[in-house]
């Protein structure tokens, strides 16, 4: 029996209800690249835009970040902004100290332009659940995430990962894996459906790379609430163009 589902409302976007939502990443290294990609993202009309701050050359410059955020919000208008610093530990473009990771995410949580913050819950270098609590105190919802860029965990480990993400208090549970064989993709999709049925929080999963592409369009079947698609540069292997994603999601809606 499926539990009563929670949703996360971000402006006009409601994650966890209706068709899977499309999120477009913004991965520019410079201010100019970021704003150019934001324009492409706005034109694609996604449900969410993710600012991948780890790609930016001035990621730890708060004043520069404040100015970029203001321009991003103006370009994206009412498209909610997901703030993500993906650490090198989980496939991001750079490392970061635990102290700076906490400060950066709490700063983002206090910015009016940001709708949602991603936290790497299971990174052993910081206390993910405590960061979630502090972001909640700042009034923002959290995506609790875990990324495996080298493998797909077995069924028992997948279950344990979802348990840890849920126990953190995160509002949305996200898991990304790298498949080596078709059975890896099927195992993730099966686990996604099971977790979707038993967890109140929205679940977001994807198998990366070309082999896992089907997982990015199957959310209507498995319960994965968000899929990531490109309008400019991809932030992970296997992302499909947002326009194509929208067409496929519409055709596969159940």
How does the SSE layout of this entry go?
Elements (H helix, E strand, L loop, with lengths): L7 E3 L2 E3 L5 E6 L4 H14 L3 E5 L9 H15 L4 E4 L13 H12 L6 E5 L7 H10 L4 E6 L7 H13 L4 E6 L4 H17 L4 E5 L11 H4 L3 E5 L9 E2 H10 L3
Parallel strand pairs: 3-4, 3-10, 4-5, 5-6, 6-7, 7-8, 8-9, 10-11
Antiparallel strand pairs: 1-2
Helix pairs in contact: 1-2, 3-4, 5-6
What's the total number of strands? 11
Low-confidence stretches: none
Structural class: alpha/beta
Mean pLDDT: 94
Strand fraction band?
15-25%
Percent in helix:
25-40%
Q: What are the defining features of this structure?
A:
254 residues, alpha/beta, 9-stranded parallel sheet, two-stranded antiparallel ribbon, 20% strand, globular
């Amino acid at each position: 029996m499926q539990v009563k589902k929670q949703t996360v409302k971000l402006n006009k976007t409601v994650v966890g209800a209706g068709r899977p939502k499309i999120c477009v990443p913004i991965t520019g290294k410079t201010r100019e690249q970021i704003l150019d990609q934001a324009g492409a993202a706005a034109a694609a009309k996604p449900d969410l835009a993710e600012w991948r701050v780890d790609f930016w050359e001035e990621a730890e410059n708060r004043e520069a970040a404040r100015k970029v955020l203001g321009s991003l919000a103006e370009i994206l208008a009412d498209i909610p902004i997901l703030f993500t610093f993906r650490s090198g530990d989980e496939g991001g473009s750079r490392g970061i100290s635990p102290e700076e990771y906490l400060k950066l995410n709490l700063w983002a949580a206090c910015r009016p332009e940001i709708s949602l913050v991603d936290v790497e819950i299971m990174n052993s270098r910081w206390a993910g659940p405590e960061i979630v609590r502090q972001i909640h105190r700042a009034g923002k919802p959290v995506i609790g995430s875990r990324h495996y860029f080298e493998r797909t965990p077995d069924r028992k480990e997948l279950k344990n990962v979802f348990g840890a993400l849920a126990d953190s208090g995160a509002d949305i549970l996200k898991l990304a894996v790298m498949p080596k064989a078709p059975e890896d993709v099927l195992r993730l999709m099966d686990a996604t459906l099971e977790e979707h049925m038993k967890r109140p929080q929205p679940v977001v999963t994807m198998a990366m790379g070309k082999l896992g592409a089907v997982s990015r369009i199957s959310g209507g079947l498995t319960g994965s609430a968000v899929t990531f698609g490109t309008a400019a540069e991809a932030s992970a292997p296997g992302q499909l163009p947002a326009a194509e994603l929208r067409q496929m999601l519409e055709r596969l809606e159940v």
